[in-house]
Amino acid sequence: MYLRALPFIKVTGGGNDFILIDNRKGRVNMDDFPAIIPSICKRRFSVGADGVILLTGAENADFKWMYFNSDGSEAPFCINGILSTASACQVLGIRKDTVTFATSCGTIKAEIQKEKIKVFLPPPRDIRLNQELVLDDRYLNSHYINTGVPHTVIFNESIETIPVVEMGRKVRNHQFFLPDGTNVDFVQVLNNAELSIRTYERGIEGETLSCGTGAFASAVISTLLRLVSSPVRVNTRGGSYFVIDTSNNSLEGVARIVYTGELQEALWQK
Q1: What is the pTM of this model?
Q2: Taking phi first (over 0 means left), then psi (-120 to 50 degrees means alpha), and beta for anything else, what does residue 145 get?
């Protein structure tokens, strides 16, 4: 299925970490690849990561970009994954200040200034404000938006004590969002230009330290509700932050290479 060792780059952006694989030479068999992802993303037993990014060649972009959650499911988009990939472009042989990625959500442009990356995103869609969900026999006000992947935004005066995993799982699997489910963002408005968020991610099925699409979703919804003015700083659980300008759908964050390595055959023989 593979040669004896498969080179990879470990990258991190916005509080998430990823295994980045350059498949422009076609070394990876895509029929088998999703099945090995849970084993190579398993922390303490393999490289460990929130997800896997796979790059192939593209006609009208620098790369075709694909993303897989740590459970092996493919997701159409991950902003932190895009940020992280952009940080590795020089290692991948793309020595430009601006790079483009062909994704299932459209072509994404990224501007690179060392570890600071700005990406320009497709316009969000399917926005539904002030949706009432019945959860544990009580009504919960929520807001739905698709920023490449579905997100449900829930505001609270303080997000520190919210049971993100328990409550997030219930919203994620709510009948209203069947069959695909939704990511869930718990948002606190700090002032008219700053938010804090905690996110339950579909596919990872738990709280993550950061979620770029969730930060973008939260900023857009908060702006539409006139709770903040753009540009907006969005603080994440992991201590990182994004600067989001909803007037041009841009998001700025920090990403970098952690190390390079090779995946050995034994890692995917289970």
Answers
A1: 0.90
A2: beta
Domains and CATH numbers, the chain: 5-122+255-268 (3.10.310.10), 125-247 (3.10.310.10)
Between CA 143 and CA 221 the distance in angstroms is: 7
3-state DSSP call for residue 62?
coil
C-alpha–C-alpha distance, residues 50 and 55, integer Å: 17
240-265 confidence digits (pLDDT tens): 999 999 999 999 999 999 999 999 87
According to DSSP, the β-strands at 116-120 and 125-135 are unpaired
Positions marked catalytic: 78, 211
Helices (H) and strands (E) in the chain, counts: 4, 17
pLDDT per residue as tens digits for the range 135-192: 988 999 999 999 999 999 999 999 999 999 999 999 999 999 999 999 999 999 999 9
